[in-house]
Amino acid sequence: MLVELMKKYKTISLLLIFPFTLVFTLNVFSFLLKTVLPGLISFWLASFIYKYITDRNIKESIRNPFFSNFK
Predict the structure, then answer these.
(1) CA-closest candidate to residue 60, choices 30, 1, 69, 40
(2) Please, are residues 57 and 51 in contact by the beta-carbon 8 Å criterion?
């Protein structure tokens, strides 16, 4: 019955569903913009600063730690 009404009144159905999908979408984007994106940018910036200060890549530092030079 509900599906038949939704098929018959497509515009009204979409207008009723729209607020719920809008709230869901806004929450997802809010989470991404407030937590995930700043985390990625800060990690990228930290590795850029590390490379600038040490002239070494992080992968090189993990493979050859500073204490491996002392034999």
Answers:
(1) 69
(2) yes
- Dihedral sign for Cα atoms in the order 44, 48, 51, 53: negative
- Residue 51: exposed, middle, or buried by beta-carbon count in 10 A (0-12, 13-18, 19+)? middle
Cα 52 from Cα 46, distance rounded (Å): 10
What is the DSSP-derived secondary structure letter of residue 55?
Answer: S
- Place 68 in a pLDDT band, splitting at 50, 70 and 90: low
Residue 2, amino acid: L
- The residue whose two tokens read 């207008």 is 15
CA gap 13, 19 in Å, rounded: 11
CA distance 54 to 61: 10
pTM to 2 decimal places: 0.57
